[in-house]
Design brief:
- This protein is 45% helix and 11% strand.
- It has 197 residues and is an alpha/beta fold.
- It folds into two domains: 4-53, Helicase, Ruva Protein, domain 3 (Orthogonal Bundle), CATH 1.10.8; 59-168, Dna Topoisomerase Vi A Subunit, Chain: A, domain 2 (3-Layer(aba) Sandwich).
- The strands form two sheets. It has a four-stranded parallel sheet with strand order 4-3-5-6. Strands 1-2 form a two-stranded antiparallel ribbon.
- Strand 1 and strand 2 (63-64) form a beta hairpin.
- The longest helix is centred in the N-terminal third of the chain and has 18 residues, at 36-53.
- Pfam families: RecR_C, RecR_HhH, Toprim_4.
- This is Recombination protein RecR.
């Protein structure tokens, strides 16, 4: 029996996380072991707590520790706007920007015929119900600019046509971006969405 079996298993498990490969996982585990009292023990306790308390918000699909997330529970966020995102990571990215003051709806993915993901698999019917029940005035489609993301956006637009104002995020040149480094699709989208100065 190897004396490092548990440590090797921890490294293997950490290497499965996005953004970490075997080398990064080894460095992280070694660092945590060296700082056992400051990092490893508290991390293990927090992971156990999150494993037992984390849940999806029953309204929007965000991840939190209560049945209804803080965003859906806040009356200040009930401004008639819902921002539709593919997954929780997208919601968290939007929140980091601190520009959107409404509520969210997490679809749980995008429509994909190849992966056999249809509208009933996603939270699209729940979105339609929310638009009617919550007196929503605008639905902002913040879906990724992929084929599946755009297919999903068009499907949602068809489902909500005439019921609510539909908008999407602008696409094009990022702040600080240089034209020489952008792909053709991004340049084309930026040119199409140009505005007066």
């Amino acid at each position: 029996m190897s004396s490092t079996r548990d440590i090797d298993s921890l490294i293997d498990m950490m290497a499965r996380l996005p953004g970490l490969g075997p080398r990064s996982a080894r460095r992280a585990v070694l660092h945590m072991i060296r700082k056992r009292a400051l990092l490893l023990a508290p991390l293990a306790d927090l992971m156990q707590t999150v494993a037992t308390t984390a849940r999806e918000c029953i309204t929007c699909g965000n991840i939190g520790t209560a049945e209804t997330c803080d965003i859906c529970a806040s009356e200040k966020r009930a401004n008639g706007q819902i921002c539709v995102v593919e997954d929780v990571a997208d919601l968290w990215a939007m929140e980091r920007g601190q520009a959107f003051k409404g509520r969210y709806h997490v679809l749980g993915g995008t429509l994909s015929a190849l992966d056999q993901v249809g509208p009933e698999t996603l939270r699209i019917p729940k979105l339609v119900d929310r638009v009617l029940a919550e007196n929503i005035s605008e639905v902002i489609l913040a879906l990724n600019a992929t084929v599946d993301g755009q297919t999903t956006a068009h499907y949602i637009a068809d489902q909500l046509d005439g019921r609510v104002a539909l908008t999407s995020l602008a696409q094009g040149v990022p702040i600080g971006g240089e034209l020489d480094y952008l792909d053709d699709g991004t340049i084309s989208a930026a040119l199409s969405a140009r505005k007066s100065l």
